[in-house]
């Protein structure tokens, strides 16, 4: 873990009585699309993904790793149904916190509230970058950006999830990888 992640974990450490450690195997659904998110997950070990169901086809929207926090933030904050599912891709060790406890902590700690707002802007920016990449780049360029910005994804994520994330088939991804 980097120094920034360690610093954030230390800041949250004072609230450890509110967290519940949860170990889950790979392929565990933590939140199903359409359900209301009542839990936020902090990843100690492992990898999670978010995905949507498009007429029975799973489309991966994001990946999360050690040091990341994950929830359907829109649902978590508004108590509306989640737009996507959250699933573990690897066995995970997670620290979980309920929506009520999280709200209390954020209200009582301006520094953590600021960190959370920065996290939301970072997620928004990542989502915008991906959306713009889909609009202006071909699949080859999207793949090149992915391995340049997030090389660990290529090492840890199965190819069919990467293909889904890039909006292409596994066969197309294989062709792109073979051209490099």
UniProtKB/TrEMBL annotation:
Domain Cyclic nucleotide-binding, first and last residues per copy: 1-123
SUPFAM superfamilies named among the record's database cross-references: cAMP-binding domain-like (SSF51206)
InterPro entries membership: cNMP-bd_dom, cNMP-bd_dom_sf, RmlC-like_jellyroll
Pfam families (alphabetical): cNMP_binding (PF00027)
Gene3D superfamilies recorded: Jelly Rolls
Protein name: Crp/Fnr family transcriptional regulator
